[in-house]
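Notes from hallway chat w/ T.B., transcribed later so I don't forget. T.B. wanted the structure written out for a chain they're using in a teaching module, and asked if we could keep both sequence and structure tokens in one place. Agreed to drop them here.
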Amino acid sequence: MRDRLKELLNNSYAPYSNFRVSAVVVMKDGTSFNGVNVENAAYGSSICAERSAILAAISNGYKKNDFDKLYVMCDNEKVGMPCFACRQVILEFFDKDSTITCMNPYEDEITLSVKDLCPYPFDSEDLKWKVDLLA
């Protein structure tokens, strides 16, 4: 997987930050999808590699809970972690016991479960509680 992620870094479009990221999502049936970060001069229009890979799977017909693993590489000496926007999308589609492996192009990597990566999730359960402020 490390070699695949290194090769994918070449597809990243990061002319503003020069911080290239690649990702591969593996589905429970063994199918995988690639993703890279794609920056934009209007930064809010940029997309991270993790979300790029997850959305590719969704675009190909996969659904919530079809996701098994996510691998992410940043071209940095430090092992980078998914941003919080990506963590929210990961929470939406992966089981809490699924694994996320983050690595650099060298030999360093960190593997965490979704529940460890996102210990205080905001999910559908949070939307069930409403406080009546007028009461």
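Follow-up for T.B.: The longest helix spans residues 49-59. Might be a good example for the class.
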